[in-house]
Request: fold
Amino acid sequence: MTTNHLAPIHVAILGIGTVGSGVFNVLLRNQEEILRRAGRAIVVTCVADLDVARAKTLVGENVRVVNDARAVISDPEIDIVVELIGGYTLAKDLVLGAIEAGKHVVTANKALLAVHGTEIFAAAHRKGVMVAFEAAVAGGIPIIKALREGLTANRIQWIAGIINGTTNFILSEMRDKGLPFEVVLKEAQRLGYAEADPTFDIEGVDAAHKATLMSAIAFGIPVQFDKAYVEGITRLEAQDIRYAEQLGYRIKLLGITKRAATGIELRVHPSLVPAKRLIANVEGAMNAVVVQGDAVGTTLYYGKGAGSEPTASAVIADLVDITRLHTADPLHRVPHLAFQPDAMSNLPVLPMSEVSTSYYLRLRVADETGVLARVTGILAEAGISIDAVLQREADEVGGEGSMQTDLIILTHDCVEAKMNAALAQMQALSSVLAPITRIRKEELA
Reply:
């Protein structure tokens, strides 16, 4: 083989938890294959972890283990730093420190990049180093590579993704077993799909971090997580999942980013998706991302969004990329956010009130004449057209002799501000007996 004369690339891993140990094991197991692809060996020479004893049992005798990550980033022998610590504060200091020391960085830290990406990419650009983050979005699915390189000919129109496995597992279980959210969440925690503190997942924050990164790459805008609309799944009820099913839809937590006439939509919320769409049938903890481009049409990326080796697969792909480009002129590398840094767009991220979508509404109403007419009258006055109406029999909702019923309405597209105003009017009706449930609907056609 001709490539062996090139010196190995030396890698340090900061944090040898689930993903870190996966990176170490896959690199070791596939080292021959990786050498043939990268043109030189990629070797982990140093690991930083607070639990030194545990780290040593994972990486063996030949790898230096330290408890201070700062010592690693100043080590002149290290070429690439892999940051797998997570969080914002320490990770940010270490990533910026590594860049300042002229080292390339690979990270799986979507929270860090979604919030501080602009500063981090600018620092890397100044120093002529790369920050690679394939593992930060959708685990083992190479969606960043697809958006930055594979689809580079396209004007991307929209992206919709199931990009959080925990919430997708919970929604799948709620649908399959008809159980309430709280019960399924406990089960997800028992099985290890949900963290002890699941807030980031169930409130949609994790998905919004990932959607923010995809949005920046798709549309050439800066990362601006603070502009994303974020709504989780905690208020979803089993009956809405059941009603959606009867209407031919499934409810998924989607990360959505779209090119609109006046700006970019960036939002995460539960959505009704037609059951016949491929993405509606993604179950359990799996991830899937649909991308609509003008030239290619619709493409779908599906796979494991988390886990030791799936995420390691993405980290190592980044290591190989950097190894190949290590000696290249920085101007010849793929830009961090796909577009040249001086050609970024200042298209605004739209507030949710300006987003146009369609809706599922469920109203618990008094079972009396004229209610439906009053409700549809309010929608008509607001200029919101109705797609379908489903009225449950009263005894289905409240048992025999019940005096209340559920009214389910599907609408066509309208601007959210209009819908907010109409909902306020409907809620004020004396015949509407409970808070109205509103879930957005995405046809993804």
